[in-house]
Amino acid sequence: MNHESRIYIAGHKGMVGSAIWRELESKGYTHLVGLTSTQLDLKNQQAVNAFFEDVRPQVVIDAAARVGGILANSEFPYPFLMENLQIQNNLIDAAHRFDVHKFIFLGSSCIYPKLAPQPLQEACLLTGSLEPTNEWYAIAKIAGVKACEAIRKQYHKDFVSFMPTNLYGAHDNFDLETSHVLPAMIRKFHDAKLANHSPVTLWGSGTPMREFLHVEDLARATVFALEHTLPESLYNVGTGVDITIKALAEIVQHVVGHSGSIIWDTSKPDGTPRKLMDVSKLQQQGWQAQIPLEAGIKQTYAWFLAHQADYKTLRL
Ligand SMILES: NC(=O)c1ccc[n+]([C@@H]2O[C@H](COP(=O)([O-])OP(=O)(O)OC[C@H]3O[C@@H](n4cnc5c(N)ncnc54)[C@H](OP(=O)(O)O)[C@@H]3O)[C@@H](O)[C@H]2O)c1
Questions:
Q1: In terms of DSSP H, where are the helices of 175-262?
Q2: What is the pTM of this model?
């Protein structure tokens, strides 16, 4: 691995892939390769093999996936299972057959059992039942983790899986129908500020605890994994610190500059009381998140303000 290595970032226009691309560029990597799904449909095995034969990437980062919230997952179980299996299987198998030196597979904390002890350790994988609302997606991601582990075990290749916690940052999704909690709060407080600081209604009691990682920290962790040989196949990536949804709302409200009231709609579900990753395995290798939550939210709000005019036509 050097600055001229051919590095293919699958999903390079997505929130995660684009952050990894920017991080690699800023560190002087010059031979980055990225194709949109229109240019290369990763579900098409023949096309993926032809691309690998032609380009011969030396390093592959898999940040391509069909992603979505609870609603999309429960309404479209088959594509969430099958498209993700197809995308990752085609990439992992081509990377194996075309002798890619290093492969990083990105998944999510939903691979862990619903009732696993907190903080979630890598060792709790496959020790219990999954959260039913996103089990389709989780099953595909677990298969990806196991495929990388199998290649590592049998062929001693450097294939690693990273499971990030909740992410936020530039290129996040601010659509109130489909967004995650943090960008949804930014959008709600912003809209309410413009509506003469009208009250903001948020779901649940505000007591559940969640962890948030800035996508640039994940990008740094990914580049760290490219520049180091990690001894194991599966790592959690997060801050190791959680916060109540209520405290998060107060930070977002302060950053956005909304001075109205917050209404907690306790008729809406809270979800699981706590979801925190144990990130000690990656920390022991020398990586740690750097961006404090409030600073990360300020940066994300600035990005939202700079791009909000596009949100009717572009995904923010
Ligand atoms: N966002 C989070 O909070 C979060 C948290 C934990 C883990 N992750 C993980 O991070 C990874 C990336 O997520 P993200 O948030 O960056 O998603 P995203 O913004 O929706 O980006 C997904 C990318 O995948 C590409 N893609 C999807 N289907 C494809 C296909 N058939 N062929 C080629 N490319 C395809 C898309 O390309 P086009 O745009 O060209 O279609 C897009 O660039 C996922 O594995 C996800 O599980 C995300």
A1: 181-194, 215-227, 245-256
A2: 0.96
